[in-house]
């Protein structure tokens, strides 16, 4: 009898063709991203039979390693992710992993040295791949431009015949509008837009892609998806972890830059854009850009009034004592970096005029949950109320991105009995109940799409710049120390002032659960 895993692999194979052969070059191969996400994602793609027999990985890093040392380091991480005797964890096939490792190589090199690129050019000359390559920039942002320029100077971005060359660029893409513009300009001087794959890993999440399916494959949702029926929308990305070992990065970044113009705006665009003419990459991206362009530009006073910044102090998260942000190693004792942000936005277009969008994200909160809450308007006339204050909660649709992935609809039902009494109930769809989902990192789809040349889930230059433009009023309003940063206890739901942001509009956040 076929194993479940074989069946799954077979299903995937039937659904998607094997990606064309190429060399997958990782700049920054010894870093965390490669070990924790990229290699596990490549393992999963190998497991699902989606990588060509002539696919290979070439890691580039500063450390003076050889192929075996590199493989040893990857092996160690894989063992941590899949301890050999762990019970109940996802099954791990050592044979598949060995197969991938045998095709994984290492090149020592300085990212700013032309010799690295000469050596790379030789390694790419593999007849079986036609020289095609993905250059994955898993490096700190300061290297994005130098690596791309050097790839170009060495002639490594030239395409022709069946040979393609693509660059994947991680976030953060710039730290504000001018820097993102500058980076786009310098990259586009040497590479074509079609070669650039600006990644946002939220788009690799099945639940994020499902937003489009929920909206555009189900007439019941889309017909109510507008200002006539929707009171407001909340988008939450709450994390229970603190800044962990990333304080050097986080101190310079803060919650707004880290999460809003990228991850939260991708969710916003998915939930609020107009239906694209097709699911072709440019059709989808054009609609997302139109939505970002329609975010109302607030004055500095409005931006201050419509935003709340917070920073966590010590507290208990899931019973574990967490140090305050300012006590974290590498954080200034008087740091003004926000670890929480809540914003109220509006969209200047026909569909959403007058519908507020409340966004919030933060670290060291009570729970990890990413969700989009669609709060519908109250029923036109309250037939069943017993007093003026006795108002049933409005219908709510929750798109639960993670964890407990699903879609939940909360509505009122009659409590059985002779009298008319109502109570909120819920209709729940959970992915896990309906689909057998193979373990994934979220990077599989994105890597596969890049190799097959499908840019739908990647951002164009305009997308990135429009997102930075939309957060500019907040960045400007907070410049020069304007606007307070409110403390919140680690393990709480965030600062009180964020509750106030909605309360003054007569609304409430969906509890973090
Ligand atoms: C990253 C941010 O882009 O996304 C992190 O830099 C954040 O600070 C992470 O923790 C959240 O991603 P996920 O997939 O764990 O929700």
TrEMBL record:
Chemical reaction(s) catalysed: D-glucose 6-phosphate + NADP(+) = 6-phospho-D-glucono-1,5-lactone + NADPH + H(+)
Key word Oxidoreductase present: yes
Record flagged with keyword Oxidoreductase: yes
Enzyme class per UniProt: oxidoreductase
A Pfam family it matches: G6PD_C
Signal peptide: none
Binding-site positions, substrate: 201, 205, 239, 258, 363
PROSITE patterns from the UniProt entry: G6P_DEHYDROGENASE
Active-site residues, record numbering mapped to chain: 263
Annotated positions binding NADP(+): 28-35, 110-111, 171
Function as written in the Swiss-Prot or TrEMBL entry: Catalyzes the oxidation of glucose 6-phosphate to 6-phosphogluconolactone.
Family: Belongs to the glucose-6-phosphate dehydrogenase family.
Protein name, per record: Glucose-6-phosphate 1-dehydrogenase
Source organism of this protein record: Pigmentiphaga soli
